[in-house]
Amino acid sequence: MELNGKTALVTGGAVRIGAAIVRALARAGADVVIHGHRSVEPARALRREVEALGRRAFCVRGDLRREAEVRRVVRESREKGGRLDILVNNAAVFHKDTLRSLTARKLREEFDVNLFAPLLLMRAFAEESGRGSIVNLLDRRITSLDRECLPYVLAKKALAEATRIAALDLAPKIRVNAVAPGAILPPPGEGMAYLKDKAGPIPLRRRCAPEDVAEAVLLLLKNDSLTGQIIFVDGGQHLL
Ligand SMILES: NC(=O)c1ccc[n+]([C@@H]2O[C@H](COP(=O)([O-])OP(=O)(O)OC[C@H]3O[C@@H](n4cnc5c(N)ncnc54)[C@H](OP(=O)(O)O)[C@@H]3O)[C@@H](O)[C@H]2O)c1
């Protein structure tokens, strides 16, 4: 897919890894719809930044835990952009919960945002756009049995399978791929020292940056032969 002139919706695109994906798409010539939930000012600032690059940018707000909001976000994105070619399912929540500490409410929130929302977004995108390309953000922990964040890991593992099922189901008009990052940024409120402590050994001895994740997203979007693929951007950690 030639990205120049296409329109991309990035969920949770106002800050952190989502913002890096928005910037990379804009530099590649795409117009962007920056979806946000609570980050209203950062979304507006990023819109101005993208416009300064000569691309069109729009902000759309919505709580993706609500099915009606998911539909509205996708519809509004297409209406604002005039077209919608790309969906990047980046929005997520991350909580630490083990089997012993989880509750039904915590499980539901993790699954609502990290699994149900991307699934409903893929369906809405297929209905609204009919063709294009989707990239889901996973986590390198999908290959592990991480006990410290059980609901999060389960939701991401299920999204990995959903990526492959959707790739089959939506072919040939829509390609569906995924990027599985390693430890890129500490959770909001934690410093970079958090990552040093928690990230564990990295075979390439290199911590990946948000821009590395964004590059992988672009690679999957550009190559029309790829569907059902998962690219790990983790310095090789998923191999351990
Ligand atoms: N950070 C890492 O090192 C890392 C590692 C592995 C995988 N990943 C994955 O990569 C992606 C990006 O990571 P990140 O750390 O940059 O993400 P993040 O900061 O945890 O979340 C991204 C955005 O998701 C949005 N969001 C959360 N709940 C929402 C809801 N109910 N409705 C709508 N939007 C909601 C928030 O938008 P607002 O701010 O607008 O509210 C938030 O800023 C995620 O899918 C994550 O699981 C990240």
Layout of SSEs?
Blueprint (H helix, E strand, L loop, with lengths): L6 E4 L5 H12 L3 E6 L3 H13 L4 E5 L5 H15 L4 E4 L14 H26 L2 E6 L12 H21 L3 E8 L10 H7 L11 H13 L7 E4 L7
The structure holds NADP nicotinamide-adenine-dinucleotide phosphate.
Notes on the protein architecture:
Helix content is 45%, strand content 15%. It has 240 residues and is an alpha/beta fold. The protein has one domain (7-239): Rossmann fold (3-Layer(aba) Sandwich). A seven-stranded parallel beta sheet has the order 3-2-1-4-5-6-7, sandwiched between helices. Strand 2, helix 2 and strand 3 form a beta-alpha-beta unit. Helix 4 packs parallel to helix 5. Bound molecules: NADP nicotinamide-adenine-dinucleotide phosphate (NAP). NADP nicotinamide-adenine-dinucleotide phosphate binds next to helix 1.
Please identify the structural class as seen in this structure: alpha/beta
Structure annotation, total helices: 7
In the CATH hierarchy, what is the class? Alpha Beta
Task: Kindly identify the CATH topology.
Answer: Rossmann fold
CATH H-level homologous superfamily name:
NAD(P)-binding Rossmann-like Domain
Strand content: 15-25%
List the keywords.
single chain, alpha/beta, Rossmann fold, seven-stranded parallel sheet, 7 helices, binds NADP nicotinamide-adenine-dinucleotide phosphate
